[in-house]
Write a structure and sequence with these properties.
Order of helices and strands: EEHEEEEHEEHEHEEHEHEEEHE
Number of strands: 16
Shape: globular
Strand content: 25-35%
Structural class: alpha/beta
Largest sheet: 7 strands, antiparallel
CATH topology of the largest domain: Rossmann fold
CATH class of the largest domain: Alpha Beta
Radius of gyration: 18 Å
Bound molecules: flavin-adenine dinucleotide, FE2/S2 (inorganic) cluster
Helix content: 10-25%
Number of helices: 7
Distance between the termini: 28 Å
Number of domains: 2
Strand order of the largest sheet: 4-3-7-1-2-6-5
């Protein structure tokens, strides 16, 4: 995991939308917007994020956070974000035509730590697959021969995002849906992506990289407790600034992962994360959010 001091300088850059397309090749669709912003594109580390807002729009006033999904291998001044349309900010971005001016703040956060391993395993729920195209390229740069696999899960087939893009990069894509529905021609595991991963054997020393909703992280933390797998989780919270000024993005982190009664403290996801050792977070296994109080007390 990177420390605060390892970080490259943050840029506030005037970017331009190069293109937006709707990627729906494998069941679930998501928007992929390519943005020309050279400083950010050339220094992005997989797992870092950017705050993006359209220039000249009064609403939404605040930028929206997105993982850097990829950097164009043929044009390193251009990076991509991948997202679903959930509200005003993502809707306006999805509708933005080529040439639209955007303000981009990045690269924010720490990003995934990459090291050689017998296998690199991604675990993604829904649009949690967004950081993995760039992570695939950056793993290949340091560990070219290691296999890369993704357990990609959704409630149904429409929640499986970027499967075709990851397969095209040579990732072994394994799909899971809660209702058993499958994209045309694909086979799926019926259940969650964590259950799917736990049902198969992974080599000793495999490195796991996870991104998705909190219940997925809680299940993954529980499934990997006590083994020797390195599990990095890229977590999310509502963010207003993205760089430590608003205190909006707290998460409870254990004081001592080996001793739960040692309590916990809050850390800012945008500054200390978004990537954390999954076993440092105080997850509540049955609920959707991490605990917000110390051992023995209520949420
Ligand atoms: C570090 C980070 C990286 C992210 N990367 C991606 C990405 O790569 N692709 C992607 O699709 N989304 C990503 N998100 C989530 C994305 O930022 C939100 O979906 C987006 O801000 C919603 O903006 P909006 O104006 O469209 O919706 P709003 O109108 O702001 O919200 C619509 C709904 O989404 C909920 N919501 C908004 N933000 C969040 C959040 N952070 N967590 C949970 N619920 C939220 C709101 O409560 C509301 O119910 C990321 C979030 C963070 C913090
Ligand atoms: S988003 Fe403002 S402090 Fe983290």
């Amino acid at each position: 995991m990177t420390s605060d001091c390892d970080r490259l300088p943050m840029h506030v850059e005037s970017g331009v939308v190069v293109s937006t397309h709707f990627s729906d090749e494998a069941g679930g669709g998501c928007f992929v917007t390519r943005i020309r912003a050279p400083e950010i594109a050339r220094t992005a580390r997989a797992g870092q994020f950017v705050m993006v807002r359209l220039v000249g729009c009064d609403f939404p006033y605040l930028g929206r956070p997105f993982s850097v999904a990829d950097v164009d291998p043929e044009d390193p001044d251009v990076f991509a974000i991948a997202y679903t349309r959930v509200g005003e900010g993502t809707g306006m971005l999805a509708d933005a035509v080529a040439g639209t001016a955007v303000r981009v703040v990045g690269n924010l956060g720490n990003g995934f730590a990459i090291a050689p391993a017998p296998m690199h395993v991604f675990v993604a729920g829904g649009i949690g697959s967004a950081p993995f195209p760039l992570l695939t390229r950056q793993i290949r740069a340091v560990d070219p021969d290691a296999p890369i696999r993704i357990y990609l899960g959704g409630r149904d087939a429409s929640g499986l995002h970027l499967a075709a893009e990851l397969a095209a990069l040579g990732v072994d894509v394994r799909l899971a849906t809660m209702d058993g529905s499958a994209p045309a021609g694909a086979t799926v595991y019926r259940g969650t992506c964590v259950e799917h991963a736990a049902s198969e054997s992974l080599p000793e020393g495999a490195r796991l990289y996870a991104c998705g909703p909190n219940p997925m992280f809680a299940a993954l933390a529980s499934a990997t407790a006590g083994n020797d797998l390195d599990v990095q989780a890229s977590v999310e919270e509502h963010m207003a600034c993205g760089f430590g000024a608003c205190n909006a993005c707290v998460i409870p982190v254990k004081n001592n992962p080996a001793n739960r009664s040692a309590g916990w403290h809050y850390e800012l996801i945008c500054l200390r994360g978004p990537v954390f050792d999954i076993h440092r977070i105080e997850w509540h296994p049955e609920e959707s959010e991490p605990l917000v109080d110390t051992a023995g007390s209520t949420r």
